[in-house]
Amino acid sequence: MIPTLAKPRVDIEIRRALTEDLKGIMEIEETSFTTPWPREVMANEIAANPFSEVLVALHGKKVVSFMIYWVVDCERHLQNIATAPAWRSRGVARMLMDHLLGEAQRDAPSVIMLEVRELNREARALYLSLGFTQTERRKGYYSDTGEDAVIMSLNIDEENPGRRE
Ligand SMILES: CC(C)(COP(=O)(O)OP(=O)(O)OC[C@H]1O[C@@H](n2cnc3c(N)ncnc32)[C@H](O)[C@@H]1OP(=O)(O)O)[C@@H](O)C(=O)NCCC(=O)NCCS
């Protein structure tokens, strides 16, 4: 089990994803996004991509949330995070993000970057609460809705260790 400082409002364990978690991850992916990642891409992230870290949040044996980020030197790129609809607003995604911040603090100075849809209120609130700031906006980036992409980043160093709980 990976330690984290965030306190979930339910009994949750976080660990690295295994291939056996793929089904649970895909169920969440397919209910969370209009253009879900294909199963083969997700399988590759778990088992083959050397830059990728895939974490799952489990309640018992059930995958209730997952997060994918790529590590390139001291940069971490958040690629994907989603919580099963029935498990939202219980602090689970915050717990996963707390793990990511902990890793980045360990490697400080380091940076975490991510991209979020402009209308994704929940995700933007989560990232803002952790100290991420907007660095760029890509007009009409998402072809399905025409939404802008908001690029956010968090630089972590001794003076700014990031807001963990
Ligand atoms: C964004 C998402 C991952 C958050 O997951 P979650 O497990 O519900 O999040 P948490 O319960 O840990 O909440 C963390 C913070 O997110 C924000 N948040 C979560 N739900 C929210 C809501 N309904 N309204 C506003 N802010 C919300 C809040 O800042 C919250 O902190 P708080 O509980 O201290 O107020 C989830 O809504 C989701 O899966 N969305 C669909 C997939 C997606 O859009 N992923 C992000 C791609 S960039």
Shape label: globular
- List the total number of helices: 4
CATH fold topology: Aminopeptidase
Order of helices and strands: EHHEEEHEHEE
What amount of the residues lies in strands? 25-35%
The total tally of domains equals 1
* Proportion of helical residues: 25-40%
Bound molecules: coenzyme A
Mean pLDDT: 93
Give a description of the structure.
It is a single chain. With 165 residues, the protein is an alpha+beta fold. The chain has a single domain (13-156), classed as 3-Layer(aba) Sandwich (Aminopeptidase). The chain contains four helices and seven strands; from the N terminus they run E-H-H-E-E-E-H-E-H-E-E. It has helices spanning 22-32, 39-47, 92-106, 121-129; strands spanning 13-16, 52-59, 62-72, 75-83, 110-117, 133-138, 149-156. A seven-stranded mixed beta sheet has the order 1-2-3-4-5-7-6. Strand 3 (62-72) and strand 4 form a beta hairpin. It is globular, with a radius of gyration of 15 Å. The two termini are 18 Å apart. The model has no long low-confidence stretch (mean pLDDT 93). It binds coenzyme A. The site of coenzyme A (COA) has 20 residues, from strand 4, helix 3 and helix 4.
SSE map:
Elements: E1 13-16, H1 22-32, H2 39-47, E2 52-59, E3 62-72, E4 75-83, H3 92-106, E5 110-117, H4 121-129, E6 133-138, E7 149-156
